[in-house]
Amino acid sequence: MKRTLGQRIRELRQQKRMSLRDLGEVLKDPETNTPVSAAFLSDIENSRRFPSDEMLEKIAKALGTDVADLNSHDQRAAARELGELVEMNVQYAFAFRQVLDEVKEKGMSPEQIVEAVRAHQRNQKQ
Q1: 55 and 81 within one domain
Q2: CATH number for 36
Q3: Nearest CA to 67 among 57, 77, 76?
Q4: Could you report the per-residue pLDDT of 107-124, keeping only the tens digit for each?
Q5: 22-68 confidence digits (pLDDT tens)
Q6: Is the pLDDT assigned to residue 2 strictly greater than 80?
Q7: Measuring CA to CA, which residue among 7, 39, 46 is closest to residue 23?
Q8: Does 94 share its domain with 67?
Q9: What is the Cα gyration radius of the chain?
Q10: In angstroms, what CA-CA distances link 33 with 11, 20, 39, 52, 106?
Q11: Residue 35: Cβ-neighbour burial (10 angstroms; 0-12, 13-18, 19+)
Q12: Which of 1, 40, 63, 108 has a Cα-to-Cα distance from 96 of 20 to 30 A?
């Protein structure tokens, strides 16, 4: 299953055997010498907050990855795109509502949703 941005950051941090405080020290502001708080980093890892672009770059560097890797786990763009699609055509909102009801009723996982769409696409090509 695809991880969220916060989960990816936690995974990379743990691979480096760093605590939240350790990461905060690495990310400290060079001008004030103030570390990034463990509470702030915890909020990021738990998807309660999202880092600025500048902070994301610092996190990526500290964890030995690049911003593209971290951004590939950021679900905000997908949610924004869904909202834009609904704004363009309100019928998408009704369609998404039907899908959501079906997903809830059947208890479908994200993987099952993707597979259902792919199966539909394969059937359309035949």
Answers
A1: no
A2: 1.10.260.40
A3: 57
A4: 999 889 989 999 999 998
A5: 999 999 999 999 999 999 999 999 999 999 999 999 999 999 999 99
A6: no
A7: 39
A8: no
A9: 19
A10: 26, 17, 17, 19, 52
A11: middle
A12: 1
Q: What is the pLDDT of residue 78?
A: 83
What is the pTM for the complete model shown? 0.69
Measuring CA to CA, how many Å separate 17 from each of 11, 12, 23, 101, 122? 10, 9, 10, 42, 44
For residue range 66-100, what is the model confidence (pLDDT) as tens digits? Answer: 999 999 999 888 888 999 999 999 999 999 999 99
Place of tokens 């964890």: 63
Structure tokens at 81: 């795109």
The total domain count for the chain is: 2
Whether residue 54 is found in the same domain as residue 87: no
Expressed as residue numbers, the domain containing 119 is 77-125
SS3 66: coil
